[in-house]
Amino acid sequence: MTEVPGTEQILKADLVLLAMGFVSPVAAVLEAFDVEKDGRGNARASTDFMGGYATSVDKVFAAGDMRRGQSLVVWAIREGRQAARAVDEFLMGSSDLPR
């Protein structure tokens, strides 16, 4: 990717989901959100049943490659589903989504 000067945009959004595959998180993304990193430079977020996938920043969640680093796509799919449930619980107080 190459940045193209003058193409920046600001879009209003209530929810933003970033789904990107990569070898390791782009440090600038984690730093922009001030997300705490683990020893490998990934976003620090637990997989606990309650509060899982939440980062050190309120309302910011991380899963898949962003949380565990480069891995199998099946792990990313599983974590994506579990993170969706965690976000649903955070927003709604409970969730009927499968764990």
Description:
With 99 residues, this protein is mainly α. The chain has a domain of 66 residues. Helices cover 31% and strands 0% of the residues. It contains three helices and no strands. It is globular and about 45 Å long. The mean pLDDT is 84.
H-E order: HHH
What would the average pLDDT be, to the nearest integer? 84
- Beta-strand percent range: under 5%
| Main beta-sheet annotation | none
The percentage helix is 25-40%
User: SS-based structural class?
Assistant: mainly alpha
Distance between the termini: 35 Å
Low-confidence stretches: none
What overall form do the CA principal axes indicate? globular
* Rg, nearest Å: 14 Å
Please work out how many helical segments DSSP would assign. Answer: 3
| Strand elements, count | 0
Tags for this model:
0% strand, globular
Topology:
Blueprint: H1 27-33, H2 65-68, H3 73-92
Please sum up the structure shown.
The chain is mainly α and 99 residues long. The chain has helices at 27-33, 65-68, 73-92. 19% of the residues are buried.
